[in-house]
Amino acid sequence: MYPKLNEAELDNMVADDDLGALFEKGNRCAKRGDENKARQFYTLASILGNPHAHMKLAKVLEKEEKLEKAYELYTRAYSKGEDDALPGIARLIGLKEPELGMNILRQSAADGNLACIIELVEIYKKDPDTEANKKELEYWLKKLEEIEALTVASQKKTTSAKRPVGSGNAKNSRHSPTGRTPTKKSNRK
């Protein structure tokens, strides 16, 4: 909804402290290269509780090495259902306790957290010199491929489910080999 709004409509919603509008305004400012303005909008949205804004700010703060505040925002985002915050949490924990950080990533990835799988792939790509790291990289790359295959299959099912009955040519019809929709026999006598 928000990306489709024009600037005037978005500004009206921003004036009303609409969380999504504040976040979208931040995105638009960031796209234009106005990082300071983007940060202001993300900060407002974060203060009002937008978990996506928590994530954006946490990433900025992590780059600025304001790690305690970044950690706080990552955990706040995660507590509001933003599973993509887990890699940030694990990275920051890993600075003090590297094994614990990696365990969080591995367990979350094993549980299917895509952001953690991607994070592990990136970690192992940086240091593929050891045999153990090569095996880990291969394992997590395979998991990514499996998820991608499932996503593609799911999208195909969704697309074919949206196709109207009787659409398509005879070869592609899902109703019958002849391309015709089966008809019910009448029970009338």
- Give the H and E element order: HHHHHHHHH
Mean pLDDT: 82
Major sheet = none
* CA-atom Rg in angstroms: 24 Å
Count up the helices.
9
- Report helical residue fraction: 55-70%
- Total beta strands: 0
| Shape summary | globular
Class of secondary structure makeup: mainly alpha
Span from first to last CA? 54 Å
Strand-residue fraction? under 5%
Uncertain stretches of 5 or more adjacent residues: 165-189
Describe the structure concisely.
With 189 residues, the chain is mainly alpha-helical. 69% of the residues lie in helices and 0% in strands.
Structure description:
With 189 residues, the protein is mainly α. 69% of the residues lie in helices and 0% in strands. The protein is built from nine helices and no strands. The longest helix is centred in the C-terminal third of the chain and has 32 residues, at 131-162. The chain starts with 6 loop residues before the first helix and ends in a 27-residue tail after the last helix. 23% of the residues are buried. Residues 165-189 have low confidence and may be disordered.
